Amino acid sequence: MSKAGMYIKMAAAFTILSVGGPAALFYFQPTDEELFKRYNPELQRKSLENRQGRQQDFDNFVTKLKEYSKSDRPIWEAAAQDEARTRANSAEEQRKAAAEIQKRREEIKRQAINGQ
Predict the structure, then answer these.
(1) CB under 8 Å to 68, separation ≥6 — which residues?
(2) Model confidence over 60-100: pLDDT tens digits?
(3) Whole-prediction pTM value?
(4) Contact between residue 36 and residue 47 where contact means Cβ atoms under 8 Å apart
(5) Crossing angle of helices 41-69/75-115, nearest 10°?
């Protein structure tokens, strides 16, 4: 076999594989609706119930990503800084709540002692 014939066969095989592979994947891969129809009714109900929450989470994620991308720093650094700020805020809120609970306990003890 000549080299030209070999190159033609290789080009044909490359074309078939590079075009036919993704085409077959596109043809055989089920759509989201087809997958949803295959769920049992209980899973369909749960999926529909959770859909709004997942959509909201995704929207929040995209919003934060856009906010991080406006920064001059890399996105992962902006996200880490925001996460640290969120943790600090939640820790402060927990300390305030614990202090409030402690004040209530002390007040209840005082009322119990004075009421007897």
Answers:
(1) 75, 78, 79, 82
(2) 999 999 988 888 888 888 889 888 999 988 888 899 999 99
(3) 0.48
(4) yes
(5) 110
Measured CA to CA, the distance from residue 107 to residue 92 in angstroms comes to: 23
Longest CA–CA separation in the chain, Å: 110
d(CA 89, CA 42): 39
71 phi-psi bin (left φ>0, alpha ψ -120 to 50, beta other): beta
The CA angle 36-42-44, to the nearest 5 degrees, is 25
Of 71 and 22, the structure prediction assigns the larger pLDDT to 22
Token pair, residue 64, equals 């934060």
91-103: burial string, b at 16+ Cβ within 10 Å, e else:
eeeeeeeeeeeee
CA 22/CA 6 separation, integer angstroms: 25
